[in-house]
């Protein structure tokens, strides 16, 4: 996304593949930064993390746009994981673990949450061990990320766990069931008349709340 830079000569070699993304026969153009990185790795290029880089981006400022963003990201994660499976043995060990964790982690967390809920409703006992296990695994992952990035504040991501369980897990389940949907969910398309014809124009998500930003 806004935090990545690509060598122009490398991008030129992959431009045709990059612009022709399809999933189940339908055009797919979200998750493009992840897709481009996978294409780069498949072509033999390498990526490098620069911890001192500073970049600015725009983030959702309310719950609705945030959930739509997460739904879009979940779909792109599941899609591009299939594309990246053959690359996993060649990647850095931590990156391979992270890719596996992004896909198996939500599944294991969902199963643990359902088991805990069943224990509470059927057995009438509080699932302390399940809760402690989830908390421990969360702290382990956040600690590894904090050490590798040399950022203590990454430990704060552990507070994201309740949001993950109660909001994002159901969202990811829905994303997995609707992988064929390529709607961006955050853009509005309007037909603006030009000389003798109508041309689709992408409007900024904030259109209607102020001056609209229009892009081709």
Automatic annotation (TrEMBL):
Subcellular location: Cell membrane
A molecular-function term among this protein's GO annotations: hyaluronan synthase activity
Chief localisation class: membrane
Single biological process term from Gene Ontology: extracellular matrix assembly
Transmembrane regions: none
Presence of keyword Transcription regulation: no
CC terms in the record's Gene Ontology section: plasma membrane
Membrane-topology descriptor: Peripheral membrane protein
Keywords: Cell membrane, Glycosyltransferase, Membrane, Transferase
Similarity comment text for this entry: Belongs to the NodC/HAS family.
Protein name: N-acetylglucosaminyltransferase
């Amino acid at each position: 996304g806004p935090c990545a830079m690509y060598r122009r000569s490398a991008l030129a070699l992959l431009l045709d593949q990059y612009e022709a993304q399809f999933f189940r026969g339908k055009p797919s153009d979200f998750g493009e930064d992840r897709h481009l990185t996978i294409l780069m790795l498949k072509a033999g290029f390498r990526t490098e993390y620069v911890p001192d880089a500073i970049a600015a981006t725009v983030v959702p400022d309310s719950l609705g746009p945030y959930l739509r963003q997460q739904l879009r990201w979940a779909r792109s994660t599941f899609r591009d994981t299939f594309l990246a499976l053959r690359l996993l043995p060649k990647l850095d060990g931590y990156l391979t673990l992270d890719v596996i964790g992004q896909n198996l982690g939500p599944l294991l967390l969902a199963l643990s949450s359902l088991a805990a809920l069943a224990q509470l409703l059927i057995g009438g006992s509080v699932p302390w061990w399940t809760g402690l296990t989830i908390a421990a695994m969360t702290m382990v992952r956040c600690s590894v990320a904090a050490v590798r990035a040399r950022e203590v504040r990454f430990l704060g991501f552990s507070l994201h766990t309740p949001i993950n369980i109660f909001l994002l897990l159901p969202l990811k389940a829905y994303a997995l069931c609707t992988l064929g949907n390529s709607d961006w969910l955050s853009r509005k398309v309007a037909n603006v008349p030009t000389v003798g014809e109508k041309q689709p124009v992408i409007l900024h998500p904030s259109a209607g709340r102020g001056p609209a930003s229009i892009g081709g």
